[in-house]
Amino acid sequence: MSAYQELAADQLRELKNQLDQEYKEYQSKGLKLDMSRGKPAPNQLDLSMDMLDSLNSTDKAVSQNGTDCRNYGLLDGIPEAKKLMADMLDVEPEDVIVGGNSSLNLMYDTMARAMLFGVPGSEKPWFQCENRKFLCPSPGYDRHFAITEEFGFEMITVPMLPDGPDMDMVESFVKKDESIKGIWCVPMYSNPQGITYSDETIRRLAALKPAAKDFRIFCDNAYGMHHLYDDDQDHVLNLLRECRKAGSEDMVYIFGSTSKVSFPGAGISAVAASALNLSEMKKRMSIQTIGPDKLNQLRHVLYYKDVNGVNEHMRLQAQIIGPKFQIVLKTLKEELGGKGIAQWTNPKGGYFIALDTMDGCAKRVVQLCKEAGVVMTPAGATFPYGVDPQDRNIRIAPTYPSVEELTVAAKLFCLCVKLASVEKLLSGK
Ligand SMILES: Cc1ncc(COP(=O)(O)O)c(C=O)c1O
C-alpha cells in the first residue's frame, strides 16, 4: 500500500470502510487492555522477592560503620548504600545523599526548598521571583511538569531532538532571562522517547552560562541502568563530572532510584550534587527528618551486593521486557511502516516508546483506543500543561501487559492510528 497521503478521496473512503469493519470486530471482543502504565510487570517484581529474606529477625541490622540500622540517624544514608547509589549514578559516595522510597519525592522536596529558601547562589527564595520560568524539554515526563506547574513556574517547551533538548534554544533562553530558574532533563533513555543525550549535549549543558545565578539542572537519571539489550546499549556522560570540569558543579542535581530495579514505591532513592548543594540540602533535611529508612537501604545492599549485582539483575529484567518492546516495534513496522502516517522511536532502554501521528490525530487515536478497550496515556500528557501543540505525540508503555495482551493491544493501537489518519485526510478533501 502506498502512503495514505497519495490516496484519492474514493480510495480513502473505501479504506475507511474496511478499517471501520475491523474496528467494530475489535469492539465486539470487549477488550480490557492497558498500554499506559509505565511500571514493571509482576514477573519483574518476582525477581526481587528474595531481597525480603536478605534481612531477618535473627540478623544483626548493623551497617558497615557500626550504625544500628534499626535506629535513628545517618541523615544521608548508610555508607554501603551511598556507595551502591553512587556507583549507579556514576559519581562518588561523598557526592550522594540516599533518600527514601522515591526520587520524585526528592525532586519535589528539592524544588519546594528552593521555593521556600532558595538555593546556594539565590538572592531570594524562588517564590519571590514573580515571573519564574522553567525549561521543559518535550515530549517529557508529565510528573516533572506537574511539579513546576504546581509551584507556579511558567513552563517553556523546548523541543527534544534525537540527541537531547534543542541546546541552541536552551542556551539562548538561559543567557538572557534571569527568571529562568532551571531545566528538567532525563539524560538516559528519556521518558517517553527513550532518547539518550549525546556527549555534546551534556557538555553544552555543563557549559551553560545562565543569567540566573541560582539556575539548576534537575537531571533525572531514572533509567540509567535500564538497558533493553545486552549487545546494544547507549552511554551517557556524567553531568556532575562535566559540570565540575566546566566549573559549574553547583548547577546540577542528579536524581535516581531503584524503583524500576527492585520495587516501585519500596526502593531507595538518591540525589547527587556538589558539596555546597549537599550541605545546604542536609541542613534543611535535618529539620524535616531524623533519618531515612536504613533497613531498606541495608536490604538493597545485602541483596545486590554492588553495582555489578544490579547490572546482573537488570539483565534478567531486560529478558522480560526486551521481547515486549520487540512485539510493539514489530507491529508498528508491519502495520504502519511506509504509510506516511506515523513515526516512532526505537529505544535501547527505558520504559517507553513514543509515537508521533500526523498532526492533529493523537487525541483521536487515544479516544478510539479507549472506546475499543485499550487504555493509552492521555494525548498531551507528555507536554507542559497537558497540551501537545501539534496533537501528535503518544506514549506507549509496553512493560506491564502480558505478551498476549500486548500483541492484541499493539494491533488495535495501529488500527486506531490508521483510522484517525484516514479520518483526518478525508476531512481535508
Ligand atoms: C523519568 C522518571 N523519573 C522518575 C520516576 C519515578 O521515580 P521514583 O519511583 O523514584 O519516584 C519515573 C517513573 O515513571 C520516571 O519515568
Description:
The chain has 429 residues and is of the alpha/beta class. The protein is built from 13 helices and 13 strands. The strands form three sheets. Strands 2-9-8-7-6-3-4-5 form an eight-stranded mixed β-sheet, sandwiched between helices. The chain has a three-stranded antiparallel β-sheet with strand order 10-11-13, with helices on one face. A two-stranded parallel sheet has the order 1-12. A hairpin with a 2-residue loop joins strand 4 and strand 5. 47% of the residues are buried. The site of pyridoxal-5'-phosphate (PLP) has 13 residues, from helix 4.
Task: Give a brief rundown of this model.
It is built from 13 helices and 13 strands.
Determine the number of helices (DSSP H or I, runs of at least 4 residues): 13
The major beta sheet can be summarized as: 8 strands, mixed
Provide mean pLDDT, rounded: 97
- Identify the overall geometry: globular
Q: Which residues sit in consecutive blocks of at least 5 with pLDDT less than 50?
A: none
Helix content: 40-55%
> What portion of residues belong to β-strands?
5-15%
Distance between the termini: 20 Å
Hetero ligands? pyridoxal-5'-phosphate
Instruction: Write down the Rg.
Output: 23 Å
Strand order, largest beta sheet? 2-9-8-7-6-3-4-5
Task: Label the structural class.
Answer: alpha/beta
Order of helices and strands: HEHHEHEHEEHEHEHEEHHHEEHEEH
Number of strands: 13
